Amino acid sequence: MYVRLPNPIADYVDAIARGDVEGMVQPFAADGVVVSDDGRRHQGRPAIRTWIQETSAANGTVLTPDTLCHETSRIVVEGVKTGDFEGSPRRFVLAFELDGGVIKTMEAA
Q1: What is the DSSP string of 11-78?
Q2: Domain SnoaL-like, which positions (predicted)?
């Protein structure tokens, strides 16, 4: 199933598929926040870059979104996540808040 994602989210997902770390970081606001599925908070592009290098880039993650839902100020994207990690493939749920064409927050569930 094809899901049309808002531009900054689509840019993030496309960069993951290419293994492009800088492309994964660019859609985030300079002071953006990622709350990873282990509950850790990563704020600002340098911290987000480090988190990406240790996770998505390290294990060749690819996201295939199949569901998009708008919840008040959040956009929730679900799909299948594959890569070189235990339990692959598995479902993912990411909740995004956008601000002026960039990702303000991303929370993994």
Answers
A1: HHHHHHHHT-HHHHHTTEEEEEEEE-TTS-EEESHHHHHHHHHHTHHHHT-EEEEEEEEEETTEEEEE
A2: 10-103
Report pTM: 0.93
List pLDDT tens digits, range 80-89. Answer: 999 998 999 9
- As assigned by CATH, the class of the 7-108 domain is alpha beta
Q: At a CB cut-off of 8 Å and minimum separation 6, what does 42 contact? A: 33, 34, 35, 36, 48, 50, 51
What distance in Å separates the CA atoms of residue 32 and residue 10, rounded to the nearest whole number? 17
